[in-house]
Amino acid sequence: MNSLAPGKDTSPVEVSNISAHGIWLLAYGKELYLPYEHFPWFLEQTVRAITNVQEPSLGHYYWPDLDIDLSEEIIEHPDRFPLKSGNP
User: Fold this and answer.
1) Dihedral angle at the C-alpha atoms of 73, 78, 79, 82, nearest 10 degrees?
2) So where are the chain's domains?
3) CA 44 and chain centroid, separation
4) What are the tens digits of pLDDT across the range 31-84?
5) Is the model's pTM score more than 0.85?
6) Which residues have C-beta within 8 Å of that of residue 61, sequence separation ≥ 6?
């Protein structure tokens, strides 16, 4: 009897905690903190939308329900990437 080939690996990224102050993303054993102060797009979203996170490439995280793309560098150093409004 032959075993089937293993399926595609599941994403190693997951939201490990959601609090009143921010969210924690766990990727490859490393925990990344996203405070709402720097990432306000997550503040009033559903748990389902926040936990639906993908990693299309190493260190690049995408929330399809929220259309949010963030890199590990942006998460670790939000001061280097200040929020900008599209309004003049």
Assistant:
1) 110
2) 13-80
3) 15
4) 999 999 999 999 999 999 999 999 999 999 999 999 999 999 999 999 998 876
5) no
6) 13, 25, 27, 53, 54, 55, 69, 70, 71, 72, 75
